UniProtKB/TrEMBL annotation:
Domain of life: Bacteria
Pfam families: Transket_pyr, Transketolase_C
Species: Streptomyces sulfonofaciens
Every Transketolase-like pyrimidine-binding domain range: 2-168
Identification of the protein by name: Transketolase
CDD domains recorded: TPP_PYR_DXS_TK_like
Organism placement in taxonomy: Bacteria, Bacillati, Actinomycetota, Actinomycetes, Kitasatosporales
InterPro entries the UniProt entry points to: PDH/Transketolase, THDP-binding, Transketo_C/PFOR_II, Transketolase-like_Pyr-bd, Transketolase_C
Bilayer-spanning residue ranges: none
MF terms (GO), sorted A to Z: magnesium ion binding
């Protein structure tokens, strides 16, 4: 199976052919996938070299010129390193654009901590008006990239990952999808965490919602789910633990409720290992997730 990142260049190359307003901005990473597109559109595939602050600044400048920039590199170099440019060049100036990251939280453990970015979504959450897509499958990534580019002059962050579910869902770039219905607790699985969550909740009396667009947060879906499943909510995210707990609290502010946020821990894992080993170390595989979910929801969740 191909990965979300494998879909990025072909999807964007097609969009470049179709939409003369779109321009792709790279910082070396991913440039090989755009060799043919660069020949066809030499003025709309721009590689600035290993200069991430310039990468974001150039994207904002292209937006000022009326274009729709799609800016791409690893998450740690796209969100964390040039955060001031994201904040000021796009946000302060009121410009729209699409940031598309790769490597997610720890897709390349051998790259070390410099190439890991579990806090990217939490950092983007400090800024106003950004839509955040976290697809869980290459088909969803392709769909959400299309939504992001077509979103007028809006600010959109698309988080691509090597981690993925076995099958894609019919996502629309807005709503959470009900995947399983139960009467004791709601579990929100974000992007690539769905398969692990479904395995962890197998046989439990819980409702499972699938979220691939987490900003804006689909508060209505959460409220609907709690009407029959109660107001105990667990959020399982492939990024920093607790990233979306405040959004759940806001959604249920007028109701007594409890929230548990599961995700990547703050402690740095200094051994390279592989993706599966990092997932296990952060408690994001089915067994540990089931233990923490049932411990939070209580014996009534077991059927």
């Amino acid at each position: 199976m191909d990965t979300m990142r494998d879909r990025f260049a072909p999807t964007m190359s097609r969009i470049l052919d179709e939409d003369p307003r779109v321009v792709v901005v790279l910082a070396e990473i991913g440039r090989d996938g755009f060799t043919e597109a660069a020949r066809a559109h030499p003025d709309r595939v721009i590689n600035v070299g290993i200069r991430e602050q310039l990468l974001v600044g150039a994207g904002a400048g292209l937006a000022l010129a009326g274009l729709r920039p799609v800016v791409h590199t690893f998450a740690s170099f796209l969100v964390e390193r040039p955060f001031e440019q994201v904040k000021l060049d796009f946000g302060h100036q009121g410009l729209g654009g699409v940031l598309v990251s790769a490597a997610a939280s720890f897709d390349w453990p051998a790259g070390g901590f410099t190439h890991m970015s579990p806090g990217d979504v939490a950092l983007m959450d400090t800024l106003d008006g950004w839509t955040v897509h976290v697809p869980g499958h290459p088909d969803e990534a392709e769909t959400l990239l299309g939504h992001a580019v077509a979103a007028g002059d809006e600010k959109v962050y698309v988080r691509l990952s090597v981690q993925q579910n076995t099958s894609g869902r019919d996502v629309d770039g807005a709503r959470f999808l009900p995947v399983r219905t139960g009467g004791r607790g709601v579990v929100i699985a974000v992007g690539p965490m769905l398969d692990q969550v479904l395995a962890a909740t197998d046989g439990l009396d819980t409702t499972v919602l699938y979220a691939t667009t987490i900003r804006p947060f689909d508060a209505q879906a959460v409220r609907r789910a709690t009407e029959s499943a109660g107001t105990d909510v667990v959020v399982v995210e492939p990024c920093l633990a607790g990233t979306s707990t405040a959004a759940v609290n806001d959604a249920l502010a007028d109701l007594p409720h409890r929230v548990l946020g599961l995700g990547v821990g703050r402690r740095e894992l200094r051994r390279y290992g592989g993706i599966e080993e990092h997932l296990a170390a952060h408690g994001l595989t089915a067994g540990p997730l089931r233990e923490r979910i049932t411990g939070f929801l209580g014996p009534a969740a077991r059927v």
